[in-house]
Model the fold of this input.
Amino acid sequence: MCGHVCQPFRTEDLKFMGDDVFAVQIPNGLKGDPLVYVPQRPLGEAFCFDLGSLEALAHKDLMRITHVFVSHTHMDHFIGFDRLLRVHLPHARLMKMWGPAPFIERVQAKLRAYTWNLIKPDQIRFLVHELKEDGSVTEALLTNTNNFAIQAFPSKSSIHKLCEWADGSSMRAALLDHKGIPSVAYKYLVPGRMRVLVEKMKDFGLEPGEWVGQLQARLRAHHQDDTLVIEGRSFSVRDLASKVIEWEAQRSFAYVTDASFDERNVKALFEAFGSSEQLISETSFLDKDFARALDKAHLTSRHAALLGRLLRVKKLHTFHFSAIYGEESEVLLQESQDIFQELQKADDSSFQAALQAEFLRIKS
Ligand SMILES: [Zn+2]
Ligand SMILES: [Zn+2]
Done:
């Protein structure tokens, strides 16, 4: 793989959601193998969507990965598995993975391809989750101790909540069709948080203490009219909170790749995700090449823009550009943004008309 060297895009384009919550990276650029790397700063961990080539990621970044969400196992989305395995091998850590059925067998086949007589029992442990068509999830712990035998059992998780991290963030999924095979779309959600402004406490002559937790508990219970007694003084919960608490809104982004644009997929995506703050969407082809997209069960720039409007996202990010465009990739990038901006201005009925027009165009 050529990595960054032959990408026409600047580094800024690769690390494109630069804030504390979403410092999302696309290490292979917009034309390389699909790989989206998401550091979770409060946890010191990271997860990734898909496992295209991992060569562009530094060793220390790979070491942070604890969860992997795979859309499907076409080669360009799964070839990085071996590097992930190799980097984590000496550390005997549990790796959690998700993907569409028969994902457990796919991971087993990867693991069984090597000879493992020199490692310790339980040195390799993959907790693999497989998403079924009916939305249920099956999981199996694959370990070298028993030559990665599959003992699968129903998972407590479901497509509506695949997992939840210690900071309250969570992942859900939608199953889409990709020319007869399932491709999983994911939505990552970080709940709204209360940020305590320590510097503002001085205005009330207060120091941080147990009262902060009490104040947060009253706010969570919607008891703004209560009075809180702190060090013998009474404070209105509403007044105090308005000065020392800042609300950070809920954040979310969806990841959609390798799916055909059809009524079934659009419905499945909307039902599973409703809305999202941002969308990272595959855009393999230009609008004029929609017949090509149809043939390969991929999305065009118009499709990505329509999906962005469907989920009412504020920002649309596109990637997984087809190699046929070469230097023309800038056009692809721009086209999806132009169509998306137009659709953002459209009211609901105009948007529905645009959606139906595209369904008709595809069928004809
Ligand atoms: Zn692909
Ligand atoms: Zn594919």
User: Anything to note?
Assistant: The two ends are 38 Å apart (CA to CA). The chain has two domains: 11-191+252-358, 193-248. Residues 34, 74, 76-77, 258, 320 surround zinc ion (ligand 1) (CB under 6 Å). Residues 116 and 144 are 7 Å apart (CA to CA).
